[in-house]
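Bumping my old thread because nobody answered last time. Still need a sequence for this structure:
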């Protein structure tokens, strides 16, 4: 399968929140911050395709109601539909959207508002894949995550019959695997693609948000179950140690892959 990273924009997050208990003198050597201790985070989606399928992994924050999220200082946002067109496809051709989880910075691009302010589905012919536990968390969020979920991002997609939920590891297509992990949030999907030449592509989402987070104990304070995050990360790192595995970092502004 061919692939292309789609850079949909950047935002700012507190460095202490991103690296949890790790002292700044340690994490700042691997990831920079500004004078207000804010780290610039990317939203790097991944487009994967062959002759039959066009699959998008995560959709960025989109462009809806960002005034309510001004704290994050979103900048250099790109229209995901235009990025898709630059690769020679139309949004209507996308067959599958795999959402690592449903926090607004990963799924906001699933819908948009047209010129008259109506809410529209960005990829109207695509199946949108979500972990079942994540979906339930989206509908009935816990106190720590309730501000990270927005009904307008996925409910229109659900109403259109395009949301598909998985409650166990799942082979989406031949050699395209969806693996479920808890930690940062419940029921995250990690995508793994085995290539014909034996190489592999790994899209871990917020299990490993930046290259700096490859260190085992470097766990974000945003993670609701840090011990499960640790276990998930160790499992993925064991896979990464295999030869020819390219790992894509959704939030890393400086290292897109490794």
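Sorry it took so long. Here it is:
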């Amino acid at each position: 399968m061919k692939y292309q990273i789609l850079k949909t924009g950047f935002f700012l997050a507190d460095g202490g929140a991103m690296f949890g208990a790790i002292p700044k003198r340690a994490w700042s050597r691997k990831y920079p911050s500004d004078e207000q201790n804010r780290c610039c985070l990317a939203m790097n989606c991944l487009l994967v395709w062959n002759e039959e399928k066009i699959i998008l992994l995560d959709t960025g924050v989109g462009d809806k109601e960002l005034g309510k999220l001004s704290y994050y200082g979103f900048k250099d946002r790109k229209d995901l539909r235009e990025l898709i067109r630059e690769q020679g496809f139309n949004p209507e051709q996308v067959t599958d959207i795999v959402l690592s989880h449903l926090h607004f910075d990963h799924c906001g691009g699933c819908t948009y508002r047209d010129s008259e302010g109506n809410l529209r589905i960005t990829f109207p012919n695509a199946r949108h894949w979500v972990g079942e536990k994540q979906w339930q968390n989206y509908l009935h969020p816990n106190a720590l995550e309730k501000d990270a979920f927005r009904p307008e991002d996925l409910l229109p997609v659900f109403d259109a019959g395009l949301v598909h939920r998985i409650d166990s590891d799942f082979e989406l297509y031949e050699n395209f695997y969806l693996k479920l992990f808890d930690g940062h949030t419940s029921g995250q999907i990690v995508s793994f693609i085995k290539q014909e030449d034996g190489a592999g592509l790994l899209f871990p989402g917020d299990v490993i948000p930046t290259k700096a987070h490859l260190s085992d104990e470097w766990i974000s304070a945003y993670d609701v179950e840090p011990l499960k995050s640790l276990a998930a990360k160790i499992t993925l790192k064991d896979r990464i140690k295999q030869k020819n595995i390219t790992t894509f970092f959704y939030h890393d502004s400086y290292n897109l892959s490794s």
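The chain has seven helices and 13 strands. Let me know if any region looks off to you.
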